[in-house]
Every structure is written in structure tokens, then in C-alpha cells.
Specification:
The chain is α+β, with helices and mostly antiparallel strands. The chain folds into two domains: 72 residues, Phosphorylase Kinase, domain 1; 118 residues, Transferase(Phosphotransferase) domain 1 (Transferase(Phosphotransferase), domain 1). 45% of the residues lie in helices and 20% in strands. The protein is built from six helices and ten strands, in the order E-E-E-H-E-E-E-H-H-E-E-E-E-H-H-H. The chain has a five-stranded antiparallel sheet, with helices on one face. It has a three-stranded antiparallel sheet with strand order 6-8-9. Helix 3 packs across helix 5. The radius of gyration is 17 Å and the shape is globular.
């Protein structure tokens, strides 16, 4: 099977080959080479470590191999990207699962960093989280609240016809430790955003 580029982002090129995903971090010519190499290496290592840690906790692609420098080879999740399918499926059932998954994620003190439905794949009624390129460890309430706030914004932008109900269902099923503090912080973040907008 010929390699097929399925996504070129700002940080990495994603290639599909032999039913596996190869994620290659892009060299940045505007950065000093020594710094660029160091950054790509540390981000690749961090991402592979986080995915490996989550493998037995939530649905994520399995890591097959990593050189810990710039590439990760992982399992290809051949399913439906929720950004294209959320409205066409039983979205309340899916959002219940998203809420439960995010609670488990945050209980591990892991922040996804790019929670959008483009980074969620539905396969055999299971929602997989993908692309942990911006993820990091944090126990801070603020970081967990920002993660959810970004998801709310993504749902409002991409799935506005069902966004309100989708968000409600996610938050009803999102029950991590310090749940109350995280929800309160989301409200505070939204108020800050509205204040800035005036």
C-alpha cells in the first residue's frame, strides 16, 4: 500500500501506510536548528509517553513504535471523524461518552490541548481521542477548564444546531475529581472572554 498523506498540520505530517499512522514532526526553518531538534524531540517524546499512559484508560490509538526524535508510528483508527458525523449519529449517546472520557483524562492530570470533534473518531460505538501533539501534564484547575472551554467553542462553531444540548450532555457526564471547581472556572473564563469582547 502506497503511503498516503492524510493531513498536513502546522506541527506535523500525518501519513497512512499499511494500516498504520506515521506522524512526522516538521522541521521549522525559522528556528535555530539545535533548538528545533530539541523541541521536536521533546514534543514527540512527551506525546508518545502520554498516549502510552492513556492506552489502558481511555480509547486512544496504540503506539506501535517511536524513535523519540520526530516520528511516532501508531494504530490507524478507521472510523468516522466526529467533525463530519456528530449530527448524523446518536449525538447524545456520543456526548455522554465524551464527558466520561474527558473526566478520566483529567483525572490523570492530562490536558489534551486541542479538544475539537476533528480529534475524535467514532469506531464501533467507541469515541477515540486522537492527536495529542499539544497535550501536557497539569493538575491545575485552570488548564482543565480551558480544555473544556475550547471544546465548547469548537462545538458552538462547528455543530451550532446541536451545540447547546451536546455541551449540556458532556458536562452532565463529566465527573472528575474537583468537578465543582473546574465548572466554576469555566464560567469565570467565559466571563473574562465576554469582558474582553466589550
Amino acid at each position: 500500500m502506497k503511503p498516503k498523506i492524510i493531513q498536513t498540520g502546522a506541527e506535523a505530517v500525518i501519513t497512512l501506510q499499511n494500516n498504520q499512522i506515521l506522524k512526522n514532526r516538521i522541521k521549522k526553518s525559522y528556528r535555530l536548528e539545535i533548538l528545533d531538534t530539541k523541541l521536536r524531540k521533546s514534543r514527540t517524546k512527551a506525546e508518545a509517553k502520554i498516549i502510552t499512559k492513556l492506552q489502558n484508560i481511555i480509547p486512544v490509538p496504540k503506539i506501535i513504535e517511536t524513535d523519540n526524535k520526530e516520528k511516532i508510528i501508531m494504530e490507524y483508527i478507521d472510523g468516522k471523524k466526529l467533525s463530519d458525523y456528530l449530527e448524523k449519529e446518536d449525538y447524545k449517546k456520543i456526548c455522554k461518552q465524551i464527558g466520561e472520557t474527558l473526566a478520566k483524562l483529567h483525572n490523570q492530570d492530562i490536558i489534551h490541548g486541542d479538544l475539537t470533534t476533528s480529534n475524535m473518531i467514532l469506531k464501533e460505538n467507541k469515541v477515540y481521542l486522537i492527536d495529542f501533539g499539544l497535550s501536557f501534564h497539569s493538575h491545575k484547575i485552570e488548564d482543565k477548564a480551558v480544555d473544556l472551554h475550547l471544546l465548547k467553542q469548537a462545538l458552538n462553531a462547528k455543530h451550532y444546531t446541536i451545540a447547546e444540548q451536546a455541551i449540556k450532555t458532556i458536562l452532565e457526564n463529566y465527573k472528575p475529581e474537583k468537578y465543582k471547581l473546574i465548572i466554576e472556572r469555566i464560567t469565570a473564563i467565559e466571563k473574562r472572554g465576554r469582558y474582553k469582547g466589550h
